[in-house]
Structures
1.
Amino acid sequence: MSDEGDKAVSVIGFIGSVFSPWYRWSGRREPQDHCCLNVVTYGPGGRFTMTDRGRAALRQSDERLTVGPSSMRWTGRQLIVEVNEVSALPRVSAVRGRIVLTPQGLTDVEVALTEDGAHVWRPFAPTCRIEVDLTQGHRWQGHGYLDANFGNAALEADFRFWTWGRYPVSDGAACFYDATRKDGSRLEIGLHVTADGEARMIQPPPAARFARSGWLVERHTPADPGTKPRQVMPMLDAPFYTRALVETTIDGERTVGVHEALDLRRFASPLLMPMLAVRVPRRAGWRFGDG
């Protein structure tokens, strides 16, 4: 998010695009055949890009992930994202440029989100600086976050609902996972990471509800007793998923960070897939050299 708090960007590289209807319709047997670089800008001139591409569009090395005309490259110090995408309906246009993410410290934390280890979270760098230079007027600097999720099962197979939040604090960042698994058990994780990457698990403050999203997705996030979180800026609002800038209070410190809520019961509905296909086009035949 920008230092001014009026713009933001999210970038997700998928191999096995978990929210792609095309991947679900395929039976999710070949993750490499459903890859994408999902780039979304928020604020004035915001755009949504999420093109599902086939196996021929994927190239990987230890330092680089390339999906079609876009890529992520790790230099050993920075993550450099080269963006060359086309946004989805209703505002179809080119989204091009570069994003540079510079972690202030790297962690070695790996958290299993289910007892069998089918889903794993890796918060690589909860505190970063970011430089954004993209089309539609998105040229700004701010603070950011770098993580990864890995899994060998569908999210809706193991979870009913989850929320996640990353909030900058004076000495680093606090990250929270709060989920209800499919068997009814709860996952409650609090992680504090200093700016230089020193991590420790913490007890999250109690979860506090705040206003539902536009699609009425339930939302809550940790907040000190007697305080109430609030949405500062909407980001992504879908029937099963919401992302927003949210203000909350943690250990007496007021902070604004990115919050997500995901309703896997809604996502499991087959009626949702045709709606998603409008926002997630499929380019199975893309080849390098196609542009």
2.
Amino acid sequence: MDKKIINQPFKQLRLTGNGQPEDVVELHEGVITSLGPNEVLVEMEAAPIHISDFMLVGGIYGVKPSFPAPLGAEGVGRIIDVGSGHVTEYLGKRVIILPYYEQGTWATHLVAPVKNLVIVDEGIEATQLAQLTINAVTAFLTILDYSELKPGDWIGQTAANSAVGQYVIGLAKINGWKTLNIVRRAESAEFVRSIGGDEVVIIGDDLGTEIEKALDGKQLDHVLDTVGGTTIGTIAGFLKSRGSIVGYSSESGQTPIIRPLDLFYRRLHYHGFWVIDWFRITPKERIDNLIQHLSGLVGTGRLSATVGGTFSIEKYQEAFQAAKKPGRPGKYFFTFNH
């Protein structure tokens, strides 16, 4: 089938090599000239900036692109043109771009195959939809794919003020679970309490004692970790026998350290999870169903994550500085006013 000839100017952030973002990311301007069979043209609304994006830029992420490489894993936009094939019904639809790292969402416009998209409802705030496929999906799957929790069961989590942590707290409130939330700063603890975290503990020399006080004789039924190091080992001491720990990142850069006696005698399970791999191996029907379920919860306000701020694509250097700042108020986004 022939390609459809179009003429769409666009701007896109591209990676020219590995290094610091200010040195190796550039703003590219060009023209999209054609759409292939089953491809569509998406006009972007919003795309988030993740810690994992900086890891990719630095060359320490699980995705190793060829240069120059388009940047941005996920986002939300609207289909404004379609190629040939059975894609005409997509015209005008609002869509989430799934995080396959194939098209680059830090762009005013992009071309994507329909298999990389999920149609979503109108009326939902763009920045909430834009971070759904990485943060909200991670929160959902790291709980429900590894444990069968009942109302009243306890989830322990590190970096509870993060976007994933916020979604975990939201899911816990929906399902009647309780959360033990570990954070690094007093202001983060105050924030986590304000959004419904049941117990909050600040990391310090007496972390074990503080967790013991917070749980007051109860055990954790499931643990999520994004920090690594010795912190997760301390938390694991309060996990029930044969319980699961799911690690989905290591913000400290340290190997998770769990006492061998906990692993051997209490039969604890440690699982590594990478949401990008889940998307790659999961049937599209299940992906569509999960995105529709989560976007419905977002649309009714039952799930959300804070937004630190938004930037135009031209202000990318300022956006990177804000997104890398410790203790930032929430995730930052590129937004596109057309």
